[in-house]
Amino acid sequence: MSNISDIIEVFIKELLEDASNQSVEIQRNELASYFKCSPSQINYVLTTRFSMDRGFIVESRRGGGGCIKIAQMDIEKDRYVEGLFIEIGNSINHLKGVQIIELLHQKGIISGREKEIMNAAISDRSIQSPFDIKNEVRANILKSMMLAVYRNE
């Protein structure tokens, strides 16, 4: 692990593992000081490594020096899948789609075979559309596959 973002991610995940309620509150400035980095580096890690599509909820609290609450999602599957639909929205890029599919697999919502099929379906090679609508087509395909898998459990 040579990257400061990786180190910060591991640190926060260890905090979450040790927490009894799978959530932690951190001070952005204190964490930045601890790792000798800028607060924007902490924001970057939170945005890219602790997003909803990766199974986390991040809440920024006003006041208190930049207090941030990070919680690992542990909610009913219905609400979880509904949240992913909101996260996908009307458009999604390939990387984010793959991350959502991986999360569905990790949570046991889809099988390994379904994961591979879904990844193939949302790949740029499979979507023969003009570039300006490719991410919209990908979002529709991903949501349709999620519905099909979810309904047939």
Please tell me about this protein's structure.
This protein has 153 residues and is mainly α. The chain has 2 domains: 4-72, Phenylalanyl-tRNA Synthetase, Chain B, domain 1, CATH 3.30.56; 77-151, no CATH class. Helix content is 59%, strand content 10%. It contains 7 helices and 3 strands. The protein has helices at residues 4-18, 28-35, 39-49, 77-88, 94-106, 112-121, 131-151, and strands spanning 23-27, 56-60, 67-72. A 3-stranded antiparallel sheet has the order 1-3-2. A hairpin with a 6-residue loop joins strand 2 (56-60) and strand 3 (67-72). Helix 1 packs across helix 3 and helix 2 crosses helix 3. The protein is globular, with a radius of gyration of 17 Å. The N and C termini lie far apart (39 Å). The relative contact order is 0.11.
Helix content: 55-70%
Low-confidence stretches: none
Main β-sheet, spatial strand arrangement:
1-3-2
| DSSP strand count | 3
Average of per-residue pLDDT values: 86
Task: Supply database-style keywords.
153 residues; mainly alpha; Phenylalanyl-tRNA Synthetase, Chain B, domain 1; three-stranded antiparallel beta sheet; 3 strands
